Each structure stands twice: as C-alpha cells, then as structure tokens.
Amino acid sequence: MASSAGANAGAKKSAKPMSKKHLAHFEKRLLEERARVIKELGHHGETFGASAQESDGDLSTYSFHMADQGTDAMEREKAFLFASQEGRFLWHIDEALRRLYKSPETFGRCHNCGEEIAFERLDALPHARYCIACKQREEDGKK
Fold first, then answer.
1. pLDDT tens for residues 35-59?
2. In angstroms, what CA-CA distances link 69 with 11, 54, 131?
3. Band of the pLDDT at 2, cuts 50, 70, 90?
4. Phi-psi domain of 135 (left: phi exceeds 0; alpha: psi -120 through 50; beta: other)
5. Dihedral of the CA atoms 16, 94, 83, 112 (nearest 10)?
6. b/e per residue, 55-66, with b = 16+ CB within 10 A?
7. End-to-end CA distance of the chain, in Å?
8. Which strand (E) or helix (H) includes residue 127?
9. DSSP 3-state of 104
10. What is d(CA 132, CA 109) in angstroms, rounded to the nearest whole number?
11. DSSP string, 20-83
C-alpha cells in the first residue's frame, strides 16, 4: 500500500497546472460571484436596518396586531437566515480566490485525492475544493 501512496504523490506533483486562460476565467467567475453576494448582503443589511414600521410599509404609529408582529418577526428571521447563508458563501468564494492567487499551480485540484476537478464542475461552482467522486463520498458519509 505504501508504494501506491507514493505513486499517487508522484502523480500529484507531475500533473500539469491549469492554463492561464482557464485561471483567468475562474478568477473572473469568482469575482462576479463575489460582487453578486456582496450586493445581496447589502439588500439584507437594508432589511435589518429598517425599523418595524418602515419594514412593513406602514408609517402610522398605531400598534401592530399580534399576527402582524409575528409575520414581521418571521420575515426578519428568514432574511437573517438568507444573509448568513450568503455570508458563508462569500467566505468560500474568498477562500477560493486566496487559493487561486496564492498557488495557481494547484488551483482546480481536489483537496482530497489531488486529481483535477472537472472544468464543468468548476465552471458551475468555481469555489469547489473536491472532485465529484470525493464530494460524493463525503456526502454519503454524512448520511
């Protein structure tokens, strides 16, 4: 088994890096996704910054009905959930950009097995760290 691990390590080192054209493509995709996420987070920030009266469009000072207050609380909670998901996504995008800038020769390689991640997968998820096979094994292990 030790010899096969050594062979895999040699394969990882001898694998040729991604072309500059592909690296530029993925950098552009990541920067576009990053801009989109930051814009979305800005919209969520506006939602959180609004007062209860401003958020529902009612500018009168009359007290809310309890059902309205519950609906407003649910909407704020949903907005917070979406914002936290976007925040995690932004973190993954930033990590992918760091990998791309720090070591472009290994960008697009699976963090688990070292094999090249398919172009189609990276085009759909430019922040992907695992090839399909390793990601599938990870997902199966969580069940």
1. 998 888 887 666 665 555 555 555 5
2. 61, 13, 46
3. very low
4. alpha
5. 40
6. beeeeeeeeeee
7. 29
8. none
9. coil
10. 11
11. HHHHHHHHHHHHHHHHHHHHHHHHHHHHHHS-HHHHHT--S-SPPPHHHHHHHHHHHHHHHHHH
Query: CA-CA distance, 67 to 52, in Å (whole number)?
Result: 14
Cα distance between residue 43 and residue 49, in whole Å? 10
Number of H helices, E strands in the chain: 6, 0
| Token pair of 138 as six digits | 């990870």
Q: How far is Cα 134 from Cα 73, in angstroms, rounded to an integer?
A: 40
pLDDT digits (tens, 9 = 90+) for 86-105: 889 999 999 999 999 998 88
Q: Which residue has the tokens 């809310």?
A: 64
Return the amino acid letter for 140. Answer: D
Q: Which two tokens stand for residue 50?
A: 């609004």
State pLDDT tens for residues 13-37. 456 778 889 899 999 999 999 999 8
User: Measuring CA to CA, how many Å separate 133 from each of 27, 111, 116?
Assistant: 24, 12, 11
